Amino acid sequence: MSRSRCSSRVSLMAFIGLFIALFSTESSAAQVPLLMWSSDSLPPLASPAAGHITSNEQLTAYLTSAFGSGPNTVLLFLQDKLSKEDFTVFGGVFGNKQDSAFQNLEAALQSSPSSVKLPALEWSDSSATLALLQEKLDVSPVLVDADTLSHLSINTSASNLLLINLPYCTGFDKSCKQVLHDNDENIGKVLTVMKDKNVPYTAIYTGLQPSRVISETSMSNQPAGRSLLQAVEPSVKPPIMYNLSGNPCIMLWAQNLNISLTSTSEWIDLAAETPSLAGSFCNSSYSLLVLTYTSGHILSFSMSRRLYSVSARYWFTLDSVQLQSNGRTASFIGKRNIYAPAEYSFHCQSVTSFRDALLVPTNADQNTTQWRLNFIDLQIQGFGLANGTDFSYASDCAGFFTAGIWMGLLTSLLMLYIFMYGMHMIMQLNTMDRFDDPKGPSISVPQTE
Ligand SMILES: *[C@@H]1O[C@H](CO)[C@@H](O)[C@H](O)[C@H]1NC(C)=O
Ligand SMILES: *[C@@H]1O[C@H](CO)[C@@H](O)[C@H](O)[C@H]1NC(C)=O
Ligand SMILES: *[C@@H]1O[C@H](CO)[C@@H](O)[C@H](O)[C@H]1NC(C)=O
Ligand SMILES: *[C@@H]1O[C@H](CO)[C@@H](O)[C@H](O)[C@H]1NC(C)=O
Ligand SMILES: *[C@@H]1O[C@H](CO)[C@@H](O)[C@H](O)[C@H]1NC(C)=O
Ligand SMILES: *[C@@H]1O[C@H](CO)[C@@H](O)[C@H](O)[C@H]1NC(C)=O
Questions:
Q1: What is the largest CA-CA distance in the chain?
Q2: Bridge partners of 81?
Q3: Domain named V-type proton ATPase subunit S1/VOA1 transmembrane: which ranges (predicted)?
Q4: How far, in whole angstroms, is CA 288 from its chain's centroid?
Q5: What does the DSSP assignment read for 134-149?
Q6: Is 283 in contact with 273 (CB distance < 8 Å)?
Q7: From the CB of residue 447, how many other CB atoms can be counted at a distance below 10 Å?
Q8: End-to-end CA, the chain
């Protein structure tokens, strides 16, 4: 008993430690997106540079110019959680309107005379945006929904801050897409009420906190770390770089580019060889990186850059990876989660064609069904390198909870449960009242030892 209790306590500590670790990394470099639109015009905002994180000072300065001195009515749609990835994951494939969870938001952005989109606003604590607006408008927020708003009379000769809280999926009741869709309906209703009231307004849609933080934590130590490592430690190999007319246009770095052509899983690590880049190509909407190895293997990555209407920005997708060997070709298409904002790089700790497949084989050629890819610590960028010889901020493919974290979490919970069960059993122990009952059956005390 004491040993199991002790180990439970150890895992409880591990469990707490894990959470502290998660939350401390979260606050280090997290961001939320912010969308802002107005029924009047907004001052222009210099479009954020590639992979740029907007600081709170920049937002403060912008809001100061946007709100000027006169009275303003501001609608703040504050969702419990929001990250830029929500727009691509739930925004409909390639901006397909019917499929989007943000139809009203999209319509509002399109129909308003001006809008501002900040994909990555520095996030430090949940109350920052609200506090900032409160300070700029010099009023207290009024919590409303579409219903109460329709009964509210808005005095336009003073500033108003109307707060609409929106939930984020908790994973228990509705699907994330459904929750975001319902939120979007709410936004639509509120905007209709404002239109009916004929009150000019500025609306802001943002998150109380990020919904995904893994890319931020990887950002803080990935690209910077890699270039630092390059400077300090010559053993880290440089990235593969394809230049078009002297300017870098595709970059790839990988710890291992393992391929296997047989069922025996003999891995060949192509990252150990230096390829020729002949046949590579890039323009503003399409990039193809062809790596031809002296061992006879040809590995090619094709990427494209498209406009997703809801986030009104370009995103790049890793569309397919092809492997050619001995005159045969196997193609693998990237599942939809291989994407990144076009100015960013894409990073993935593990890209495989078999285990939690990010790459799915497409051609039905019987001769290549056993071909497999296993890339470790892959980082690729096909657009927006401009003048840089460094990867931009990395968008990470990993979910917030990786398999490792899940395993640790579940084990800890199980141990905690066992511990609680043990405690419960101990609490249930009573002195036997039958000692006091002479009429009851006699007690037999088993002779154990
Ligand atoms: C509207 O607000 C202004 C400024 O605070 C105030 O002078 C005016 O009385 C208000 N009007 C109504 C109808 O409340
Ligand atoms: C590509 O351009 C970068 C920066 O201009 C340079 O450092 C690099 O050596 C070039 N690579 C090739 C293969 O020309
Ligand atoms: C990839 O290949 C290298 C060299 O063959 C090997 O050392 C490494 O363990 C392989 N990695 C994986 C994940 O298969
Ligand atoms: C980029 O190249 C692709 C493939 O060659 C072509 O279809 C596309 O039109 C090109 N785009 C631009 C903007 O040049
Ligand atoms: C597969 O391999 C066999 C024998 O090597 C060959 O005869 C056949 O044409 C190949 N099939 C394809 C689709 O390449
Ligand atoms: C690239 O270089 C040009 C001039 O050499 C400069 O004007 C431009 O701002 C640079 N772009 C980036 C993204 O650094």
A1: 102
A2: 209
A3: 399-437
A4: 25
A5: HHHHTS-EEE--HHHH
A6: no
A7: 5
A8: 16
Say if ligand 6 is within 6 A of residue 140 CB: no
Q: In whole angstroms, what is the distance from residue 115 CA to residue 235 CA? A: 47
User: What gap in Å lies between CA 12 and CA 18, rounded to an integer?
Assistant: 10
Placement of tokens 């990470």 in the chain: 396
Helix (H) or strand (E) holding 60: helix 56-67
Coil, helix or strand for 393? coil
Residue 360: both structure tokens together: 């799915």
Pocket test for ligand 5, best of 366, 368, 371 (most atoms within 8 A of CB): 366
Instruction: Name the nearest CA neighbour of 115 among 28, 192, 33.
Output: 33
% of the chain with per-residue pLDDT over 90: 16
Q: Note whether 204 and 62 are within 8 A (CB).
A: no
Cβ-contact 303, 357 below 8 angstroms: no
Q: Which of 69, 153, 156, 157 to mutate to test the pocket of ligand 1 (most atoms within 8 A of CB)?
A: 157
- Sequence-distant (6+) residues with CB within 8 A of 75 are 162, 164, 190, 191, 194, 201, 202, 203, 204
Task: Tell me the one-letter amino acid at 9.
Answer: R
Q: Mind listing the pLDDT tens digit for each residue in 131-148?
A: 889 888 888 888 888 888
Question: Residue 176: is its pLDDT beyond 50?
Answer: yes
The answer to whether the beta carbons of residues 92 and 310 sit under 8 Å apart is yes
Domains of the chain, earliest start first:
26-209 (no CATH), 240-396 (2.40.160.110)
Q: Which two tokens stand for residue 82?
A: 């929001």
Q: ∠ CA 110-152-41 to the nearest 5 degrees? A: 30
For ligand 5, atom 4, which residue shows the shortest CA distance? 367
**Amino acid at the residue 106:** E
Q: 370 — phi, psi (to 5°)?
A: -90, -5
